[in-house]
Design a protein that fits this description.
The chain has 145 residues and is α+β, with helices and mostly antiparallel strands. The chain has one domain: Lipocalin (Beta Barrel), CATH 2.40.128. The protein is 15% helix and 48% strand. It has an 8-stranded antiparallel beta barrel. The radius of gyration is 16 Å and the shape is globular. It starts with a helix and ends in an 11-residue tail after the last strand. This is Lipocalin-like domain-containing protein.
Length: 145
């Protein structure tokens, strides 16, 4: 039953993403993203109500880039370990794919959808689906006018 639901979810997401031109999705990748929800390959969903880290993604004109984990702080800036995951982007069979290479591993992710507010990624190794939302900094203005 769980595999049917997961298969249905992945097929729906793939069909939905087919209407998106992969070239236009590239423009939406840059920026700060936080995980909103993950659907594991067994169909289990995990909601993320609070994230202590966010992802910063930067893509260059040469379709290469990096992803860096950042930790927001109370001053509106970020702390980082400075470690990055470098990647290259390719369009294969009308799908937008990110190919990562680190000293320890290589893997591929498929962008199912990317727009101004949402990023949906399928990890091709473990078949987990990650749904990101644009990061919005906390408004800690305690002005009590």
């Amino acid at each position: 039953m769980m595999y049917k639901r997961l298969s249905l979810l992945v097929i729906t997401l793939l069909l939905f993403s087919c209407s998106n031109d992969p070239n236009t999705m590239i423009n939406h990748l840059n920026g700060y993203w936080e995980i909103d929800e993950v659907t594991l390959s067994d169909g289990t969903k995990k909601d993320y109500n609070f994230n202590d880290t966010i992802d910063y993604i930067e893509v260059s004109d040469s379709l290469s880039g990096f992803r860096r984990k950042l930790k927001p702080n109370l001053f509106g800036t970020f702390e980082t370990s400075r470690s990055e995951e470098n990647f290259s982007i390719k369009i294969d069979d009308d799908s937008l794919n990110i190919y990562y290479t680190t000293p320890y591993s290589k893997w591929k992710e498929t962008i199912l959808n990317a727009n101004e507010t949402q990023l949906i990624i399928l990890n091709n190794t473990n078949k987990d689906v990650y749904i990101y939302k644009r990061y919005e900094s906390l408004d800690l203005d305690f002005d009590t006018k």
